[in-house]
């Protein structure tokens, strides 16, 4: 098991767990790009959005719901925030395990596209 996020899910790499349930785990990004930078990751090893089956699509809705809830808890819901899911090499994905970035707490620079 050489996937770093699978190791965090298994508790083999210590990380501050912000939230978890049967499907999802949330922890702070090790290299934060904003005052709030959380990673909402699937517990199951799914390499990227491109590998999601139709049956797994509700997982994304669940992950977005958790992100929205955490944004409210962190009081950035009204100010605004950004959810990002990089997919594949040209999409800038570094860790090949499904995750969504929750970024906020400052005025974010324009998205690349
Ligand atoms: P990606 O480019 O794949 O969407 O983003 C992966 C993110 O995971 C990066 O922002 C990176 O800083 C973060 N990351 C990489 N390794 C670790 C780690 O071991 N622990 C945590 N908490 N974050 C990590
Ligand atoms: Zn994994």
Task: Provide an overview of this structure.
The chain has 113 residues and is an alpha+beta fold. It has 2 helices and 5 strands; from the N terminus they run H-E-E-E-H-E-E. The protein has helices spanning 4-9, 57-73, and strands at 19-20, 24-28, 36-42, 81-84, 99-104. The protein has a 5-stranded antiparallel β-sheet, covered by helices on one side. The chain is globular, with a radius of gyration of 14 Å. The chain starts with a helix and ends in a 9-residue tail after the last strand. The mean pLDDT is 96. The site of guanosine-5'-monophosphate (5GP) has 14 residues, from strand 2.
Outline the fold blueprint:
Layout: H1 4-9, E1 19-20, E2 24-28, E3 36-42, H2 57-73, E4 81-84, E5 99-104
Antiparallel strand pairs: 1-2, 2-3, 3-5, 4-5
Bound molecules: guanosine-5'-monophosphate and zinc ion (ZN).
Brief account:
With 113 residues, the protein is of the alpha+beta class. The protein has helices at 4-9, 57-73; strands spanning 19-20, 24-28, 36-42, 81-84, 99-104. The chain contains two helices and five strands, in the order H-E-E-E-H-E-E.
Between the first and last Cα atoms, what is the distance in angstroms?
34 Å
Strands, count: 5
Class of secondary structure makeup: alpha+beta
Mean pLDDT: 96
Bound molecules: guanosine-5'-monophosphate, zinc ion
Q: What string, H for helix and E for strand, traces the elements in order? A: HEEEHEE
Main β-sheet description? 5 strands, antiparallel
- General shape: globular
Low-confidence stretches: none
Query: Radius of gyration from the CA trace?
Result: 14 Å
SS strand fraction = 15-25%
**Biggest sheet, strands in spatial order?**
1-2-3-5-4
Helix content: 10-25%
Number of alpha- plus pi-helical segments: 2
